[in-house]
Description:
Layout: H1 10-14, E1 18-19, H2 25-30, E2 38-43, H3 48-59, H4 61-65, E3 70-75, H5 80-85, E4 93-98, E5 101-107, H6 112-124
Parallel strand pairs: 1-3, 2-3
Antiparallel strand pairs: 2-4, 4-5
Amino acid sequence: MAAAPFDPAEVFQVFGMRRVDSASFDAQVVRAPGDDLRCVFLWGQDCYNCGIFKQTALLQRQALLALELSWFEADVYADEALGRRFSLHGVPTFVLYRSGKRLGRVTGWPGLPQFSAAMQRLRDGT
Length: 126
């Protein structure tokens, strides 16, 4: 029996990523109540490196879920205004917020160890 084909869109469901766009971003990410660490995955349709992240995320789901991030996603190829808002030079880009404050961003997929370490530093406030 052949393995099921890789479906990159599965990553949105597995991580409970909530779709945001230019119109909903501030209400859903910036001004929403709570002090959870919010990670916005900015990606583009048919983006090779975005696909690498999606595949890695699905293969390493337990490690990424253990980071306890609140995930959001936006296709910035379809919503160019959102891409301009963050002055993107490439995707994937991960923008991080907590309690209405932008904490930083990760441009490109650096790999799981580096991404996890960056998220831990944000959690620790260092």
